[in-house]
């Protein structure tokens, strides 16, 4: 029997790569994305066409769903869709995230602060709130999983991105606490913290620092290069697999060495 996952932020970037990798591992996936722009976020969000392209790559193995991670109703619908269409739920991956801010914290407007917090932190909470009953029902023998995408910014303080850094610190702490709450049920919960990864969000970060090319961020990573979304997705897929049965409450840093020092 195939394993089943819900992935948010699934229309592009790391989220889309997670969908691709999980399908390669035999999963069936409900791929969720907002697919419209968000006030306070200074770059375009993914589009319905982006989400359709992810679905089209995988045929019957993936269902696309337009939904906002900040909405409990939308996350309930995502979980219900997975259980109704595919029969059960084994894993959820909270990959939806935004970068906003772009100046000293005291000059950042409330719309940017609200976007960072509501998508990056509340979005994880909404997905978890919808999914945990189904994951517990699935039973420890079936290795139910929660994975959230945090960031190297969840360890570091980043100049002119304090709101984003605070939100990603919160994601790491939230999931560590969740891991403790879920331990007695045999459900694991972990975060993956990418470094500078070739995504639309990295392009937005480059603009914050006045950089014409996101490739400049490679210099801050000891491996000397940007990460590809598929590299982050591979770590997520491992955490979603039975092979990671002994790992919970961990923050797996896939950051090309960015946080070593």
How does this structure look, described?
It is a single chain. This protein is an alpha/beta fold. It is 41% helix and 14% strand. It contains seven helices and seven strands. It has helices at 13-24, 48-56, 72-86, 110-138, 162-182, 200-208, 229-239; strands at residues 4-8, 28-33, 62-66, 91-94, 145-149, 188-194, 251-254. A seven-stranded parallel beta sheet has the order 3-2-1-4-5-6-7, sandwiched between helices. Helix 4 links the parallel strand 4 (91-94) and strand 5. The longest helix is centred in the middle third of the chain and has 29 residues, at 110-138. 51% of the residues are buried.
Number of strands: 7
Question: Into which percentage range does the β-strand content fall?
Answer: 5-15%
Strand line-up in the sheet with most strands: 3-2-1-4-5-6-7
Which outline best applies?
Answer: globular
Can you write the helix and strand succession as a string?
A: EHEHEHEHEHEHHE
Number of helices: 7
> Helicity range of the residues?
40-55%
Summarize the biggest pleated sheet.
Answer: 7 strands, parallel
Straight-line distance between termini: 44 Å
Structural class: alpha/beta
Mean pLDDT: 95
User: Which segments are poorly predicted (pLDDT under 50) over 5 or more consecutive residues?
Assistant: none
Question: What is the radius of gyration?
Answer: 17 Å
């Amino acid at each position: 029997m195939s394993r089943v996952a819900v992935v948010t932020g699934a229309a592009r970037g790391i989220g889309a790569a997670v969908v691709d990798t999980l399908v390669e591992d035999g999963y069936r996936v409900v791929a969720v994305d907002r697919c419209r722009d968000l006030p306070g976020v200074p770059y375009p969000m993914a589009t319905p066409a982006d989400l359709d392209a992810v679905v089209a790559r995988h045929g019957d193995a993936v269902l696309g769903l337009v939904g906002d991670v900040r909405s409990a109703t939308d996350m309930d619908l995502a979980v219900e869709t997975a259980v109704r269409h595919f029969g059960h739920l084994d894993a959820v991956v909270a990959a939806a995230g935004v970068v906003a801010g772009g100046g000293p914290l005291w000059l950042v407007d409330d719309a940017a602060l609200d976007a960072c917090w509501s998508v990056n932190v509340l979005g994880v909470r909404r997905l978890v709130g919808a999914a945990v009953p189904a994951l517990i029902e699935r039973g420890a023998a079936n290795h139910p999983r929660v994975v959230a995408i945090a960031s190297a910014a969840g360890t570091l303080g980043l100049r002119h991105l304090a709101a984003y850094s605070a939100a990603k610190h919160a994601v790491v702490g939230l999931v560590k606490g969740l891991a403790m709450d879920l331990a007695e049920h045999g459900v694991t919960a972990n975060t993956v913290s990418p470094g500078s990864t070739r995504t639309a969000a990295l392009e937005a970060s480059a603009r914050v620092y006045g950089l014409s090319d996101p490739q400049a961020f490679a210099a801050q990573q000891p491996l000397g290069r940007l990460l590809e979304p598929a590299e982050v997705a591979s770590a997520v897929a491992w955490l979603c697999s039975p092979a990671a049965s002994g790992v919970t409450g961990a923050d797996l840093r896939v950051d090309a060495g960015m946080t070593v020092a």
